[in-house]
Amino acid sequence: MLDETALRRPDFRPGISARMADGQVWYLPAGPDRDPEGAAEGPAAAADDGGLGRDYEATVAAVLDAEDGAERLRAELALAIVLLAHNYDLGPADYQELLGSESSGAVLASLQRAFHTVAGEHAWHFRPRPPAGPRRRHRILACLGHFRAWGPRPTDLASRRPEVSGMRWSGPAR
Fold first, then answer.
1. What is the mean pLDDT of residues 60-82?
2. What is the extent of the structural domain holding 148?
């Protein structure tokens, strides 16, 4: 059995705990801290992977770009391996023990749920940010604003006559 604390790297980052196939709780680093207001913009912000390694951003992109369920599961597994490699000094046999190559269906389903949660948390940090300009109104509110332009109905019937070229229509000549 592997010793989780003895295998920690010096730059270990606590984060999300997950029970692996060996029955122990291991820690996957949390997503990088991003400024929610978008103050850190430009190439420096785009290149910031939170110190998680050069494969991190590409692996998160693979999770986001998955076209079907099987591809998403593979991408989530790859992300979990990248995150485990950041926190722990593991070899191929260690990954096989942790990820349970011969696990039962319940253990495998539990690992998949844990990796899906972790992938979702990391993908959240890469979500598109709204533009910094004025906030766009919801489509329904924009349609309802159209009704507001009509205003209340006037009680004077003469004021309901249409305008043509800026002049009020006075009706047919008498």
1. 90
2. 139-168
